[in-house]
Amino acid sequence: MQQTVISTRSTKTFFLSTSPGPSLFECVVPNANVWYKTVAVITAILLVSLLAQARFFLPDNPVPITLQGFGVLMMGSVLGLRLGLLSAIGYYLVGMAGLPVFAKGGAGWDYVVHGVTGGYLLGFILAVSVIGYLSQRGWNRGRSLWPMMIGSLLIYAPALIWLSVFDFSWPAEGKLLASAFYPFIPGDLLKLVSAAALTGGLWHLVDRKK
Q1: Is 36 contained in some domain?
Q2: Strand, helix or coil for residue 62
């Protein structure tokens, strides 16, 4: 009997709903009109922009460690797939347009296309999409850690491809993972655990009010 219970719980933990449920934002603001949604998107872009300015560099590493990733994780888990994706793309585009929203006030076409962080910025869009999708299909509340873990890893997929294809003289040959991935893992773990705890807490408040 005990084994059956464990198996059932495990299945529920990793089960994905076939139809999307409401995002955390939609639960907090039911029947939100276009103006509320616009404010939510703009607020998300502003918050990620501010968090991007909290940064520090590792020795001999041009890619900063920032709180930007924390904002990206929250963007997907709170706003869901559609609004989260719109926010992530909006953040990317306003930076491309020249507003200093990236780390160290970075902005513009050259910063994105000719810089080492260009792949990471594309990874943010991918991560938000997946986190929003999974969150609205049951991986929320106490399961929020799983989509955020997947999203954090997905940030590096386009980033590593970007650094492999283009020649930035960094990382050194044979040190792609050692320079562009491994050093960021401890910080990413802290950010995703913090974001998951905050998201779970917000869901708990919403459920209690219901």
Answers
A1: yes
A2: coil
